[in-house]
Write a structure and sequence with these properties.
By secondary structure, the protein is α+β, with helices and mostly antiparallel strands. It is built from nine helices and nine strands. The protein has three domains: 164 residues, Helix Hairpins, CATH 1.10.287.1490; 57 residues, no CATH class; 99 residues, no CATH class. The chain is 63% helix and 12% strand. The protein has a five-stranded antiparallel sheet. A four-stranded mixed sheet has the order 2-1-4-3. Helix 1 packs antiparallel against helix 2. Bound molecules: zinc ion (ZN). The site of zinc ion has 8 residues, from loops.
């Protein structure tokens, strides 16, 4: 992959982390305000309970003053009634006195009501004060947490900014400007190309462009959404191909074949690549007698003996170094085993071609 693209992929990760940290840092004061609002509510409840108690006390005092006023009136009536001339006048004073006494009774009822409600008022105040105390503790705790979290995030952001500068430093200036512009506008600036598509906007890419992106030698941006494009090879497929190649390389070092076109009934041949040279050693397929060994220098047998291999049939021999071992003749059990692997065993030189 182009080194700029590798850096920009990392840069985008770092930029995205910085963005989410910054958003979280910025959200914290709002969170603190919210919990402080809760505190204000509890504070208001306390104030309200206190005010209610105060109001009750004030009206109790007022009522007591009213009683005093009524009592003063009664005293005054009594005094005046002692000097009245007529029975009617006397009765009138008595009427006033009893009216005042009824009033006093009414006011006393009101005072009693207030006194009875006082317990509930006190309980309400106590509850409100307890709630406020708990809320204050919670707010303090949350504020401390927010403060600590902000510090951690600020430190992380600082570290990421350091990484960011490092990543940016090696990238081509105009590519960097392009990245910044697209990131601002679209939120992502570099995306993967998969199945000939830009995964940013899903638009199909021209085959030539896609091939260039796969090659990784150039920096391309999507013609539709302007995002930079990169290609990630399928790791699984690559691993599998490597495995297959390794298996092939291993097996190709040494192979037993039946080659029908040579001699009377074909030959059993062992092909090998060794020390840069290719060799083909053949034995008569009927008798197992060694025939010849051919060596091609600086070659591999797949290429050097391509003509023989075209007609050859793969065989299995479970001994590794037969080539070294059997110089004159294949041992009978090996010969038999090889012959058994042919669909039609070579019976004698006059028989039909054994490979067919
Ligand atoms: Zn696109």
């Amino acid at each position: 992959m182009h080194p700029d693209l590798e850096k920009l992929i990392q840069l985008q990760k770092v930029d995205s982390e910085i963005a989410s940290l910054t958003a979280e840092i910025n959200a914290l004061p709002k969170h603190v305000k919210q919990i402080e609002a809760k505190l204000a509510k509890a504070q208001a409840r306390v104030e309200k309970a206190k005010a209610a108690i105060k109001a009750d006390e004030a009206s109790k005092r007022r009522h007591e003053q009213d009683i005093q006023a009524q009592n003063d009136k009664i005293a005054k009536f009594r005094e005046q009634s002692s000097s009245v001339k007529t029975n009617e006048q006397y009765k009138a004073f008595l009427g006033e006195i009893s009216f005042a006494e009824v009033e006093i009774g009414k006011i006393e009822d009101k005072i009693l009501e207030i006194m009875m409600a006082a317990d509930a008022r006190t309980a309400e105040l106590k509850a409100a004060e307890a709630e406020l105390k708990a809320d204050i503790a919670e707010v303090e705790r949350e504020k401390a947490e927010a403060h600590a979290r902000t510090e951690v995030m600020s430190r992380q952001t600082k570290e990421l900014n350091g990484q960011r500068e490092g990543l940016r430093s090696g990238v081509d200036e105009s590519t960097l400007q392009h990245y910044d512009r697209v990131l601002r506008g679209r939120g992502t600036a570099i995306v993967q190309a998969i199945d000939q598509r830009c995964t940013g906007c899903q638009v199909l890419l021209r085959p030539q462009v896609y091939n260039d992106i796969i090659s990784g030698n150039v920096v391309y941006s999507c013609e539709t959404c302007s995002r930079l494009l990169y290609f990630v090879p399928d790791e699984e497929a690559i691993a599998k191909a490597a495995e297959e190649a390794a298996a092939l390389a291993h097996s190709s070092e040494h192979a037993w074949m039946f080659v029908p076109g040579i001699g009377e009934g074909g030959v059993f041949a062992v092909f090998a690549n060794s020390k840069g040279n290719a060799s083909m050693k053949s034995y008569d397929a009927l008798t197992g007698v060694f025939l010849e060994k051919r060596v091609e220098k600086n070659a591999n047998y797949q290429r050097a003996f391509a003509e023989q291999l075209r007609e050859a049939r793969n065989l299995f021999v479970d001994e590794a170094n037969l080539e070294e071992m059997y110089k004159e003749q294949l041992p009978p059990e090996i010969l038999q085993d090889l012959q058994h692997q042919l669909p039609e065993r070579p019976a004698n030189p006059q028989a039909t071609s054994p490979a067919e």
